[in-house]
UniProtKB/TrEMBL annotation:
Protein known as: Glucose-1-phosphate adenylyltransferase
Record has Metal-binding as a keyword: no
Keyword Kinase on entry: no
Pathway: Glycan biosynthesis; glycogen biosynthesis
Pfam families: Hexapep_GlmU (PF24894), NTP_transferase (PF00483)
Stated family: Belongs to the bacterial/plant glucose-1-phosphate adenylyltransferase family.
The protein's assembly and partners: Homotetramer.
Amino acid sequence: MEQKRNQPLARDAMAYVLAGGRGSRLKELTDRRAKPAVYFGGKARIIDFALSNALNSGIRRIGVATQYKAHSLIRHLQRGWNFFRPERNESFDILPASQRVSETQWYEGTADAVYQNIDIIEDYGVEYMVILAGDHVYKMDYELMLQQHVDSGAQVTIGCLEVPRMEAVGFGVMHVNDKDEIIDFVEKPSDPPGIPGNPEMALASMGIYVFHTRFLMDLLRRDADDPNSSRDFGKDIIPYIVENGKAVAHRFTASCVRSDFEREAYWRDVGTVDAYWQANIDLTDITPELDIYDSTWPIWTFAEIKPPAKFVHDDEDRRGSAISSLVSGDCIISGSSLHRSLLFTGVRANSYSRLEGAVVLPDVKIGRHAQLRNVVIDRGVIIPEGLVVGEDPELDGRRFRRSENGICLITQAMIDKLDL
C-alpha cells in the first residue's frame, strides 16, 4: 500500500551508502584509507556529504558498506555517526564485507554489496531504498527524488547530472525521452546521446538510485542467480530495468540544496589529486561555489574537542597570518604566513615558513623557513626546515608525486627518502 503523502517519504526509506572503493587515482592519499574516508574541507571526510544529505533529508535508517582498507572509515563512522537511537526507529549500520553469503566471497560489485546484506535490510521493513555513492561532494535533498520516484511510478529513479555532451564520455549516460524516461543506458560512450531539446548536453549518472525495497530485493536475488552477471548496478541492474521495466531520470538541479550564496548546482568527484586540491582550495574563495557555512543544511562529521586556532608573532618577516585561508581548530601558526590555503586540525606551522595554495591534512608539522606552494600534504607529515616545493618542477617531480597540473602530493615516506 502506498504511503500517505502527509508524512515525508524519507521516514520510510533507508539510505545505503556504497563506500568500499579505493579511489586509486588519489594515489598515496588512499594507500591507507578508502576514498570515502579521505579528508575534505578542513574538518570532514568525503563520505560525510552523502551521510549528511541523508540525515538532512529526513532519512533515519542508514547502512554503509565498506571493504577496501576500511579501518580509518569505520573508526570515523563510529566516532562521528553514533547518535542514532533505535528507540526513535533510527539505525546506523556499518556493513563490512564479512562473507555472510559465502565463506570465500567478498563484495563482488556494487549490487552484491547490497545483496549480501538483504536480511539486515528486510528486517527494517522500509518501503524505499536510496542507494548512494560515498565518494562525491554535493548537497542534495533525497526527499524530492523520492517524491518523483513515487509520482512517476518508476521501478528505478536515477540521479543525473546535466553535463556538456562530450564531457560525459567517462560516465554512464542516460538516453531519455521528453518525459525523462530512460530508453537506453550507455556506459562510458564515445558519442553520448544528447538531452531532448538540449542536444549539446547529456545526462550522466551520479550513482544515486531509488527503488521500492521489495522490487530491489527480488531483482538482486535474480541477479545473484545469473552466473554471467558482474553484480554491478551500472553494468547489470540498471540496464536490465531499462530494457524490461520503467527507469526514470532525476535531474540533480531539481533537488540540489543551495544557499543564497550558491549560484550553480555543485557536485564534484574529487577522485584525482588535481580535482581534490582544487575543490579544497576553492573553499578559500570570498564566495565559494560550495557553501559549507549554510546552517540550514549542515555537514555532519566527527566533532573533535580541540582548542581554537592560534596565531603568534608580529615581526616583519615572522608574522603569524592567514589571507584567504581556512584554519581549523588546534592549529598554531607561529610566525608563518598562509595564502589561499586550507589547514585541517592540529597543524603546526613554524616561523618564517610560507604556504600558498596548500591543502594540509591533520597533525602536520611544518619546519622553519619551509616554502610550500600548490601542495597536498598527507596526515602526520613532518616537513623539514627549509624545504622548498613549488619552484622547481623537475626537482619536485623527482621528490614527490607531481600531478599534470603541477600539484605536489607529499607523504612521510617521500620525505624520509630526501637527501637533505
